[in-house]
## 1
Amino acid sequence: PRFPLLSVLMDSSSIIDNFQAKMLLGDSQYQRINVELTETIHLDECAQIKHMEDLVSRYIQSSEWNDKKTWIQNNFLQ
């Protein structure tokens, strides 16, 4: 669509939630963990499940995930 209203609403809600949680909790108590999508995957695209699993598998092998995992271990599992 020329102006993807639903995407704008969903994205802005996510951005606001992220901002508010970060402001309330601070960096020492809040981290956002996000697998970046390289393309749009619609909620009803069951055929994309394997692709999404591959994206998650690559993410959990990344240095970003290792940093987040270390943060979780240091802040919540001690």
## 2
Amino acid sequence: MASARKVLVVYRELDDVAPYRDALIATEIAPQLVEAGSSVSLSEYHGLLLTGGTDVDPALYGETRHPETEEPDRERDDFECALLHQALDRDLPVLAICRGLQLMNVAMGGSLVQHLEPLEHHRRRSADRSVPVHKVKVEPATLLESATGRTELSVNSRHHQAVNTVGRNLRISGADPEDGIVEALESPDHRFVLAVQWHPENQVTSDAAQLRIFQSFGAAVNS
């Protein structure tokens, strides 16, 4: 691991970041865990991983807070938006997961559905967080298809918000075939910018396609 290139991983709760860290280490990337709000620049890093967490502040996309929307963590929102724009400006590889997808979409001028009804299809929970609960149809000729080698994925899910309007210069590369909820976004203008709504870090040991997401991210980081 001494020669592995470094990826910045932002966290708010240290206990929650372990699966992301372990998935990166498994693909020979050196994760550097940084608490939200720290003084840090991407100049020392080779990639950025945006993780799950609390809801993005709806004020960032011009809306008032829905009763079901969590209390915003504006410090983290602003911190991650700034890092994301740094990464995009430098064309660093970016992998964004769950909240990370929503944050990326908002940072690029998009908006969110603040509360999905009904929830069951996208927020099922079990003791085993790797258990798939729905399918994702992967769009052809996309980074997601190239990374996973699949046209359909079986994914876990635990979110109550989703993409509404898609941000600038982003394309939809995966969606739930049952309800059309956006499940993956990417930027065709960058060498590796991929955002997924599910949690592949929990599936890397049970689904080779989910592991390949991290492996593809690692290949971009190391290139």
## 3
Amino acid sequence: MNVTVSQFDLLNKLLDASELRHRVISQNVANVNTPGYHRLAVSFEEELADRLRSAGDATIDGLTPSVYEEQGLTVRADGNNVDIDKEMGQLNKNALLYQTYAQVLASRLSMMRSAITGR
């Protein structure tokens, strides 16, 4: 049972990270023409992978997504470094990930419901 609970926790954290990433990408898109604006990104999956690699019994307690300013991008003359094509691609990718996480969570809940009700 503990494994199932941790799966729910993991899916919840992945959904939270995707939701934050969607808000950050939307902010980048909204500021595509704002002089001096620098692209923001969300870091989560890398830290999650590191934790899972470091120990087989890794805990995800306290693991939260973080927003950072992405470095090394080409800056336009107005000081902005947002590439609208990249943002739209990231937005589509993130939407697909969110839908996948939500479907997996719904499937797990359905299995639990079936186990409880015996159907």
